[in-house]
Amino acid sequence: MTQLSVNVNKIAVLRNSRGGTDPDVLQAARACLDAGAHGITVHPRPDRRHIHAEDVLALSALTTARGIEFNIEGNPFAPPREGYPGLLPLCEQTRPAQATLVPDGDGQLTSDHGFDFARDAERLRPLIAALKSYGCRVSLFVDAGNPDLAQAAAIGADRIELYTGPYAEAHAAGDATAMLALFADAARRAQAVGLGVNAGHDLSQDNLADFLRAVPDVLEVSIGHALISEALYDGLDATVKGYLALL
């Protein structure tokens, strides 16, 4: 069964828009776990637009106490600044089950592309080694059309996370056949070199089942924006359970 890791960034966005502590990120994470989610994902950014470093520490304690996987996403090349110690120091302190490396910049509204291994592979290699020394499984955010997926394995990654935004767009437009073939091919190429396959970005209850029917052996989906949006209408418990039924 594909595992569901709920990204709680959007809870922090709403909290930060007003200040204070409501809605409470920890309470939301607990509700997701109580409903059966297999893990919690966060993507702290240097500009602190949503999840803060303090949230990462609190969520680490929660997931550790529950025996649940914690996945920290982020740009390993982003330098530390006030309020953000950097991705590797956060992982060293919290020892998440998984670290997902994403090449996003401050100016991006959201993650919208994967790594270019021709440019980034050798810079990533020592960072992956450091993360693995902390006990983290390492996943790299990639585009389905990337021709160099074998490089991810060569530099020490355990998994890739397929950036599913283009698939979601095609599905919404009514014809995702070509995209599904592209993603299925990417998954098979990754698995052929020993990489596990995760997926995430703009997956929803509308498009998830079609994706998982077409793309083989997806180990984990990380879902935040759509899940939290749907939960505004149906509640977190019902929404998480809806995703688990699809999985």
From TrEMBL:
Catalytic activity: 3-amino-2-oxopropyl phosphate + 1-deoxy-D-xylulose 5-phosphate = pyridoxine 5'-phosphate + phosphate + 2 H2O + H(+)
GO cellular component: cytosol
Annotated catalytic residues: 43, 73, 201
UniProt site (Transition state stabilizer): 161
Lineage top rank: taxon: Bacteria
Binding site residues for 3-amino-2-oxopropyl phosphate: 7, 18, 202, 224-225
Residues binding 1-deoxy-D-xylulose 5-phosphate, per UniProt: 45, 50, 110
An annotated GO BP: pyridoxine biosynthetic process
Described function: Catalyzes the complicated ring closure reaction between the two acyclic compounds 1-deoxy-D-xylulose-5-phosphate (DXP) and 3-amino-2-oxopropyl phosphate (1-amino-acetone-3-phosphate or AAP) to form pyridoxine 5'-phosphate (PNP) and inorganic phosphate.
Xref: PANTHER family: PYRIDOXINE 5'-PHOSPHATE SYNTHASE
Protein known as: Pyridoxine 5'-phosphate synthase
Provenance organism: Stenotrophomonas maltophilia (Pseudomonas maltophilia)
Gene field: pdxJ
